[in-house]
Design goal:
Strand order of the largest sheet: 1-2-6-7
Helix content: 25-40%
Number of strands: 7
Strand content: 5-15%
Order of helices and strands: HHEHHEHEEEHHEE
Structural class: alpha/beta
Largest sheet: 4 strands, mixed
Low-confidence stretches: 141-176
Number of helices: 7
Length: 176
Amino acid sequence: MLDTCVVKLATFPAERNPAALIVEFCLRRLVECWASPPILDEYCHVLAEEPDFLAEFLAVVEVCYPLTEIHVIGHEPDNRFLECALATGADFLVTVNTAPGHFEQKHYGSVCVVTPGEFVNLRQVRTFFGRAFHRLLQHPPRGMRIACRPSSTLANPCLVGGLLRSKMGFSLMLQR
């Protein structure tokens, strides 16, 4: 699950930009990225000045319709991300908004809140991508594209693609 701030950070030029690397994983379908309609609206609003990037990113985002409304985070829009993360069985919610009133806890149920830097440095992420991932982090080549097709399994009830499913996919889950 990617908070909007992470997707926006991916548009900033930087030699070592973990947010851009995570979005690249999504674009290359190395990881799945899920969003609910309110999250899609927020992406569109925040990324309106980057229409080509927005279109490319939205093309790989899977849409889910959480059936439960949550009100546990002070900043109300952040609850939409948590709803989607919980509905899709996400392992991680990646954000830089960890200040009081936002994602101030490290865990919400089974969802672990991490920053982009923490995510790309997780042992299981580095292990999954192996040496190529380490080289990519140390020396990110310009314009490098990675291709792989994930598979998914779904686990809690939510609407995915208009269908109610009893199994659920992971937002930003490493496909093993």
